[in-house]
Specification:
By secondary structure, this protein is of the alpha/beta class. Helix content is about 50%, strand content about 15%. Helix 5 links the parallel strand 3 and strand 4. The longest helix has 24 residues. The relative contact order is 0.19. The structure holds ligand V0D. Ligand V0D binds next to helix 3, strand 2, helix 4, strand 3 and helix 5.
Length: about 250
């Protein structure tokens, strides 16, 4: 255990020497499968996933990363059994009840992207209260993609732009990539530099479709409940070894 901590500290120091990603996006996947492999109910996996979430938030904060975006619940997740969806909807409140105090203390700003309509009232309340309570903070942004889908986000963006054109606030020929990006839910954020997807799936799964255009992708077979500081640091270390070209040479 002591040895592991030393290695973690070493890795941490090494990572600090390289160029840090400003924005890291993570798909918190593999919770249900992690539990099933152990003969536990899927719900136990979701709860275990909160521990990994806390570890990664702490590590990102210690490193000085500016933004982390976490894929917590996709628009497709409603297709899961009713009991599992009901349980998942309790987790934001549970997490925030325990963590909000320490998040405020750490100067963290909580943001949310996605559609809160159709989400239970008590979940909405917990999230809105946390967003409000951290709005005047100035530190790391903790951005939760909640009931989010990338294609839906793009369609909603087009609607907002069309409305502004129709009502005369924007001319059609002023629409550029930059303008478009500003109308997205992430208009206030830089694009992710690094995407981490655990659980062995090699897909984007309708996450941040526009924003991931030049993002470095990092996959691992490790399930989210087994993800920890060490894996997070490894992902960043690998990212630092890559040469980013943005389409140039
Ligand atoms: C379950 C692992 C925190 C992923 C983490 C319903 C699967 C635990 C939140 C959360 C979930 C969401 C919004 C917010 C604050 C916290 C969360 C879901 C699942 C989706 F403002 N954990 N968490 N949301 N799990």
């Amino acid at each position: 255990m002591k040895k592991l901590q030393n290695r973690e500290e070493e890795l941490f120091q090494e990572v600090l020497k390289g160029k840090l990603p400003e924005h890291v996006a993570i798909i918190m996947d593999g919770n249900g499968r992690w539990a099933q492999k152990r003969g536990l109910p899927r719900l136990a996996g979701h709860r275990a996933g909160i521990i990994s979430l806390k570890k990664v938030v702490a590590c990102a904060q210690e490193l000085g990363i500016k933004v982390i975006t976490l894929y917590a619940f996709s628009t497709e997740n409603w297709k899961r059994p009713r009991r599992e969806v009901d349980f998942l909807m309790r987790l934001p409140g549970e997490y925030l009840q325990k963590e909000l105090g320490s998040l405020i203390e750490k100067n963290i700003i909580i943001k949310i992207m996605g559609d809160l309509n159709g989400v239970p009232e008590f979940t909405q309340k917990a999230i809105k209260q946390a967003v409000e309570a951290t709005q005047q903070n100035t530190g790391m942004v903790l951005n939760f993609a909640f009931n989010y889908g990338g294609r839906t986000e793009i369609v909603n963006t087009v609607k907002r732009i069309a409305k502004d054109v129709f009502e005369g606030r924007l001319r059609w020929n002023e629409i550029t990539e930059k303008v478009f990006a500003n109308y997205l839910d992430t208009g206030f954020l830089p694009d992710p530099d690094l995407l981490i997807r655990p659980s062995g799936e090699l897909r984007i799964s309708n996450f941040l479709l526009w924003q991931l255009a030049y993002t470095e992708l990092w996959f691992t077979k490790v399930m989210w409940p087994d993800f920890n500081k060490m894996y997070f640091l490894k992902a960043i270390k690998d990212y630092q070894k890559r040469e980013r070209r943005f389409g140039g040479i």
